[in-house]
UniProtKB/TrEMBL annotation, chain B:
It comes from Pseudooceanicola albus. Belongs to the ABC-2 integral membrane protein family. One of its GO terms (molecular function) is ABC-type transporter activity. PANTHER family: MEMBRANE COMPONENT OF ABC TRANSPORTER YHHJ-RELATED, MULTIDRUG ABC TRANSPORTER PERMEASE YBHS-RELATED. Keywords: Cell membrane, Membrane, Transmembrane, Transmembrane helix, Transport. This is Transport permease protein. The lineage of its organism: Bacteria, Pseudomonadati, Pseudomonadota, Alphaproteobacteria, Rhodobacterales. It is found in: Cell inner membrane; Cell membrane.
Length: 307, 377
């Protein structure tokens, strides 16, 4: 019973000679909301599909909810709710018909009552006769979530669930996820929104098929060992131009009227930044390193490793 | 707990499919409208034994023998003398530009030769650029000519005898009047079923792949057998409706005789439709998009149309083409349906094609289940 929700080692998968997932090891404890981050095409979707039995790994093994991912795919399917990246319910069926269909596939009884409760639970009752194809992004997402939760899974795999959803619906979606996690549901959610990453208990960062960082948000930021300075003033644009390519300066990113200057060698960064600050008449102050700064750094690092 | 086939899950799949069919009005309408439109077009338009073809007559001497010959030819129904008084040169020009299909030349010494019993000859030139145009008309010719002459030279035959002689002229068994529709309409049932069943089934499953719903379906506990039955059964019902429509039209509109047993026809149709639907399912496991599924369907459809014996006589093809024709379910179905409907063949007579169709079902469903990707690999 106390087996971790996800424990997979060395997962590898290639498509047409290209390694899409390369030696990924992932552990997710029960009741945890784990963030799964990485740029587009980094292998997040493939890793999720490997874990729910939709794809067979070329190498590696592991267990999901205590079931072997290679042999017990059917048992995993019963206990896992998987929400695909693309809306994958029937657009020519209404919300209620879609849920009835899912209830039938999971053999949930009494189907009518289960569907009614799910509709009420996720606030879909008023729209139950609407065709899924005519719903907005937020409502589609809600329907997909309802369908994934209806059979009371122990693990929820969400693949970029909030793409194309407005901020209010996103907020509601996350509140829902947190409420469920409070009741003991384990959630693995892939995203590339930083604010969503910060809502997770732990994050796993994958780039070019490899897992490159993991831990809580604070841990990941701390482990990156980056120093960030903030520059303010009228001439930030000129400063940005000057800073690019100077020793110790790894990232220069404008945020409104301020400039974030990031580097891993604190002393070198400080020297370069001070010089430019004096030259352009800007003020320089220390700042918090953000998760985004870390990710940009991780991405460029992995790119270096690849070439 | 998880069985290979759960009726609850199967029912959920069937119900979903039924709702989708009902919502997709255009496709649904096509499934019912297509058979009717095709039936009307093919049934009325295709005629492999064309009659009343334009002909020119070159007859310098107008005697009773010539007149007898001409009227005998006209009575066959194949010839319509649009140019009854042509000269040799005119006739040559007419046939060259396609204004007539035949030129009938009765030589000036024809009457004399008949009376002397000195090998009378007439010349029929047929435009054989389309062989099927000429074949029927030419094949009836010698009998017609001999009989017409016998009548003129011998005693005047009774009207009964004349009618009997005319019926002998057309050497076509089971279809004495050579009505193409008798041959075409039962075959058309096979062609319509083949087109709609294979295409609809293959596209219905590929649509799931294309729209991403297959990923969802696979991540839920449905077995390949359930998914296959969930797709196959609804289209089997659509096929049943099409069969009813076509058979009713065959009877009511075209008056095609139902010589054989109806249950045998229906049994044959059932096995055939099953083979088609499973073939469509197999195609859908091979293609990733609906476009590919459609292309594969047509890749299969055209040769089977040409080689099955629907369009061209099966026995007229070279041996290798006949062998190739055997791999299409349509070939076997045509033998079965034409045998039962037109010749009144019994179960023993059509056991061959029936077993062949059953073999298709077994082999195709085995292949489809093997090909079906339980995973997305």
């Amino acid at each position: 019973m106390t087996a971790p929700a996800i424990e997979v080692r060395g997962l590898t998968k290639s498509f047409g000679g290209r390694r899409v997932v390369d030696d990924v090891t992932l552990n997710v404890a029960r009741g945890e909301i784990a963030g799964f981050l990485g740029p587009n095409g980094s292998g997040k979707t493939t890793t999720i599909r490997l874990m729910c039995g939709l794809l067979t790994p070329d190498a590696g093994a592991g267990r999901v909810l205590g079931h072997d991912i290679r042999r017990e795919g059917r048992a995993i399917k019963r206990e896992v709710g998987y929400m695909t990246q693309r809306f994958s319910f029937y657009e020519d069926l209404t919300i209620e018909e879609n849920l009835r269909f899912v209830a039938g596939l999971y053999d949930l009884r009494p189907a009518r009552a289960v569907v009614r409760d799910t509709l009420a639970d996720l606030g879909l009752t008023s729209r139950r006769d609407q065709l899924a194809g005519s719903l907005s992004g937020g409502w589609k997402q809600r329907l997909a979530l309802a369908a994934c939760l209806m059979h009371k899974p122990k693990l929820l795999l969400l693949d970029e669930p909030t793409a194309g959803v407005d901020p209010k619906a996103r907020r509601e979606f996350w509140d829902e996820i947190h409420a469920r996690a409070g009741d003991g549901l384990t959630v693995l959610v892939s995203t590339h929104y930083m604010d969503e990453a910060e809502r997770c208990h732990r994050i796993n960062y994958i780039a070019y098929g490899r897992l490159v960082a993991r831990g809580s948000v604070t841990e990941v930021v701390r482990d990156a060992g980056l120093t960030t300075l903030m520059m303010q003033g009228a001439a930030v644009h000129a400063a940005a131009k000057r800073l690019t390519g100077m020793p110790g300066v790894e990232q220069v990113a404008p945020f409104g009227n301020t400039l974030h200057v990031v580097g891993s060698d604190a002393a070198l960064l400080q020297r370069s930044a001070s010089a430019v600050a004096q030259e352009t008449g800007c003020t320089l102050s220390p700042a918090e390193t953000s998760l985004e700064d870390v990710f940009i750094r991780l991405m460029s690092q992995s790119q270096d490793n690849m070439s | 707990m998880i069985r290979l086939l759960s009726l609850i899950r199967l029912f959920a799949l069937l119900r979903k499919e039924a709702i989708q069919m009902r919502r997709d009005k255009l496709t649904f309408g096509m499934m019912l409208g297509l058979p009717l439109v095709q039936l009307m077009l093919f049934g009325f338009a295709i005629n492999t034994d064309p009659k009343a073809l334009p002909a020119a007559l070159v007859a310098p001497t107008e005697d009773r023998f010539t007149r007898a010959m001409v009227s005998a030819l006209e009575l066959t129904g194949y010839y319509r003398f649009t140019y009854p008084n042509a000269s040799t040169a005119e006739a040559e020009a007419l046939i060259a530009r396609g204004a007539v299909s035949f030129v009938v030349t009765v030589p000036s010494d024809f009457g004399r030769r008949v009376e002397r019993g000195d090998h009378p000859q007439i010349l029929i030139e047929a435009d054989a650029t389309d062989p099927s145009v000429a074949s029927g008309a030419v094949s009836t010719l010698s009998t017609v000519a001999t009989q017409a002459l016998q009548r003129e030279t011998g005693t005047t035959p009774t009207p009964e005898a004349e009618a009997a002689q005319l019926s002998v002229i057309v050497h076509k068994r089971y279809n004495p009047e050579g009505i193409t529709q008798y041959n075409i309409v039962p075959g058309l049932l096979g062609v319509i079923l083949q087109l709609t069943m294979v295409m609809m089934t293959s596209m219905a499953l590929t649509r799931e792949t294309e729209r991403g719903t297959m990923e969802n379906l696979l991540s839920m506990p449905a077995t390949p057998l359930e998914i296959m039955l969930g797709k196959v059964l609804p289209y089997l019902c659509v096929g049943a409706v099409q069969v009813a429509v076509v058979l009713a039209a065959a009877k009511a509109i075209f008056g095609v005789p139902f010589v054989g047993a109806l249950w045998l026809i229906l049994l044959g149709v059932l096995v055939f439709v099953l083979a088609l639907v499973i073939l469509g399912y197999l195609i859908s496991t091979l293609s990733r998009t609906q476009m590919q599924a459609m292309q594969l369907t047509f890749f299969f459809f055209l040769p089977s149309l040409l080689l099955s014996g629907f369009m061209f006589p099966y026995r007229g093809m070279p041996a290798w083409a006949q062998a190739l024709g055997e791999v299409f379910p349509l070939t076997h179905f045509l033998r079965l349906i034409r045998g039962v409907m037109l010749k009144g063949a019994g179960p023993a007579d059509v056991a061959g094609p029936l077993w062949a169709l059953a073999l298709f079902v077994v082999v195709l469903s085995g292949a489809a289940l093997l090909r079906f990707r339980r995973t997305l690999d």
